[in-house]
Design a protein that fits this description.
The longest helix is centred in the C-terminal third of the chain and has 33 residues, at 463-495. This protein has 540 residues and is of the alpha+beta class. The protein starts with a helix and ends in a 10-residue tail after the last helix. The protein contains 15 helices and 20 strands. Its main location: membrane.
């Protein structure tokens, strides 16, 4: 019996030591630890959440209508490419969510069915009309939101934000929490960039090309477009290039007429990094496409030699080099009046991936560190006050057994904090509430056991027999209540948002540790006191 008690004591001591080791990174002592310890032992600890540490809370809305349109446009572009490769002369136009193809013939229908079996085909006048079913569009919408979440996550990783929270909310919203972000404006710019990278041809053959002004003042773009919109051919559009006067710092816009047809998009991009032009000592962004993109880029540069290819990002033209010859390998450059910092940010956006559809910021809340500090102090005070009052009441009501229960309560808190540190959990204000609730449940477990022991003592049993019987009879009651709480916490974790998940994690850990401290911790203390020497009374 004594051997079993010592093994349990050793187990409890081992868990306490592990808890201190995992929590050490959150203490001032960690800085003075030797390098080998910092390198090989846990070094993260508990991370404070947005409401405690301060930072940014952003909510983005994915434009699902545009996601549907982009999908249809890409299908139309691919069909046009397939028809050209087959030597079939046909016109492919995308209008809204429909694709119109001329002429009407069985060969075109066969080609469509072979490559896009989901498309429904109908005849409207002299056109074949292709449409995606609503089920396919629903898949596009779901995928677009999921891809947007991954792209945003990649961009945040590149920013180096520790422990961000990113999750879907509703049908098309994405919630992003960035604890400890010092420059929320920069983070917002990089995260929210649509990054629709497109390659289009300049239309220098239109007679209007010579009438374009060389520069207009920044801010006059809308008025300029209204003036020219009825003169531009239907197949063309106007885009602007940003020009900065390096001497005065004034910003101008240079208008260009480009073909609406997109020859290549940024979703085929494999790599983007900053390089320095040795001639002018200016930064630019080097691009490399994946295998599919490299093949398309090679075809484009072979087909449009001596024409200018515009590189457009988010509707802004960055450069329009002349295609001198066919370019193999899928390499390109984005040049412009970049500072090194601007070039780095652009490379991050491109390297992290293009968003599948435009996103719009609908909520931006900045939580200051002062508010976070106040929340921490308030949470600490709530937990301390609750623990002190409960501990005093238990000692008053249960005497020596109450002291044992308080020791188990302290053990419970130590192990809970250690477990959170071991998991590198993000602690939020609801998480602190979960810790307080876990303390209450720990007390409840001890109350159930002590009342059972009292009942056994009233029946005339010895202290040792009353303890054994009381623990056995209380076990299933305690176990059932904890399991139902664990199920509730699991549901909260699965369906809840970030702060609710934090509450669910702390509550789940607290419940599991309660079972350990109540059924093993206090039982070990009672066994140590009452085993061996038979005692006639029990302080309870």
């Amino acid at each position: 019996m004594r051997k079993s008690i010592y093994l349990r004591i050793a187990l409890i001591l081992a868990t306490v030591i592990l808890a201190f080791i995992f929590f050490l990174p959150n203490t001032p002592f960690f800085d003075s630890m030797p390098d080998w310890w910092k390198k090989n032992m846990p070094h993260k600890g508990i991370v404070l959440g947005l409401d405690l540490r301060g930072g940014s809370h952003l909510v983005f809305e994915v434009d699902l209508k545009r996601a549907r349109g982009i999908t249809v446009e890409r299908i139309g572009m691919h069909l046009q490419s397939l028809l050209e490769k087959k030597g079939i002369k046909a016109t492919v136009k995308t209008v809204g969510e429909k694709i119109f193809i001329q002429p009407l013939n069985d060969e075109v229908k066969k080609l469509i069915k072979e490559n896009y079996p989901d498309l429904s085909i109908s005849v409207q006048g002299n056109n074949l009309v292709c449409e995606l079913p609503e089920t396919a569009f629903k898949r596009v919408e779901t995928t677009s939101v999921e891809q947007a979440i991954e792209v945003i996550r990649n961009r945040i990783d590149q920013l180096g934000v520790a422990e961000p929270t990113i999750h879907r909310q509703g049908e098309n919203e994405i919630v992003v929490q960035l604890p400890g972000v010092k420059d929320p404006k920069k983070a917002l710019e990089i995260i929210g960039k649509t990054a629709q990278l497109e390659f289009k041809l300049l239309d220098e053959e239109t007679p209007l090309w010579k009438e374009l002004p060389s520069l207009i003042k920044a801010g006059e773009e809308e008025a300029f477009l209204n003036q020219w919109k009825n003169r531009i051919p239907e197949s063309d559009e106007i885009v602007f290039q940003k020009i900065i006067n390096k001497e005065t710092g004034e910003v101008y816009k240079r208008p260009y007429i480009v073909k609406k047809e997109t020859l290549l998009t940024g979703d085929l991009l494999a790599e983007a990094h900053v390089s320095i032009d040795q001639r002018f000592n200016e930064p630019y962004v080097s691009l490399r496409f994946n295998d599919a993109g490299a093949k398309i880029f090679e075809e484009i540069t072979a087909k449009y030699v001596k024409q200018r290819l515009a590189i457009i990002l988010d509707g802004n033209l960055y450069s329009a080099p002349v295609i001198q010859e066919k370019i193999e390998g899928g390499n390109a450059q984005i040049t412009g009046s970049f500072t090194l910092e601007e070039a780095k940010d652009l490379a991050i956006v491109l390297r992290a991936g293009a968003l599948p559809a435009p996103v719009k910021l609908i909520q931006n809340v900045t939580v200051g560190p002062t508010l976070g500090k106040d929340s921490i102090e308030a949470g600490k005070m709530a937990v301390i006050v609750a623990a002190v009052f409960v501990s005093l009441f238990i000692i008053f009501y249960y005497r020596l057994s109450g002291v044992i229960a308080d020791l188990a309560l302290i053990l419970n808190i130590i192990l809970l904090i250690g477990a959170l540190a071991a998991l590198n959990a993000t602690l939020t204000l609801p998480g602190i509430a979960g810790i307080a609730l876990a303390i209450g449940m720990a007390v409840d477990s001890n109350v159930l056991m002590f009342e059972r022991i009292r009942e056994e003592l009233k029946l005339g049993k010895t202290p040792k027999a009353a303890i054994e019987s009381g623990y056995k009879k209380a076990f299933w009651t305690i176990f059932d209540s904890h399991v139902t709480t664990l199920i509730t916490a699991a549901v909260l974790f699965h369906f809840g948002s970030g702060p609710i998940k934090g509450f669910a994690v702390t509550l789940s850990l607290g419940v599991a540790i309660n079972l350990f401290t109540a059924l093993i911790g206090t039982k070990t203390a009672f066994d140590f006191i009452y085993t061996g020497k038979e005692r006639k009374s029990l302080s309870i």
